[in-house]
Design a protein that fits this description.
- The protein contains three helices and eight strands.
- The protein is α+β, with helices and mostly antiparallel strands and 132 residues long.
- The strands form two sheets. Strands 1-4-8-7-6-5 form a six-stranded antiparallel β-sheet. A two-stranded antiparallel sheet has the order 2-3.
Length: 132
């Protein structure tokens, strides 16, 4: 899937998408089970999702227990929202994180968004849930 592919009614990891533009898609695997990641995404964001000075604090706008969480508005104002799909992967979990925007992002903005996803989901969230 192209990083700028326009979504339609197809599904991604078992979740039906609504119209929009996927601008960044990243995936991470965790040792923690799906319920633990869901709890961290929905109820414990203030412990690991710490906005930088120029960023917004996202809220949960939609969720399906242990399966899917939508965070909006995203920390970067060019990103409308972030959908996090939680699936079981072996004994642990896999997160598929999809950023949506209503316009195409520049390559520099896309790279910065990918980096920020890595600091939040690949580092901060992992550190937070490792002790479960």
């Amino acid at each position: 899937m192209s990083s700028a592919q326009v979504r339609d009614s197809r599904t991604m990891d078992g979740v039906t998408d609504t119209p929009g533009r996927d601008v960044v898609i990243r995936r991470w695997k965790y040792a923690a089970p799906p319920w633990r990641l869901y709890d961290a995404l929905v109820g414990e964001r203030d412990h690991w999702l710490l906005p930088w000075d120029d960023e917004r604090t996202p809220a949960v706008t939609e969720c399906v227990a242990n399966e899917r969480v939508v965070l909006a508005p995203w920390v970067n104002e060019e990103i409308n929202d972030v959908t996090v799909v939680i699936t079981t992967e072996g004994q642990g979990s896999k997160l598929t994180v999809v950023m949506h925007a209503d316009h195409e992002l520049s390559e520099d903005t896309r790279k910065a968004a990918r980096y920020r996803l890595g600091t939040l989901f690949g580092e901060a969230l992992r550190t937070w849930v490792d002790g479960w």
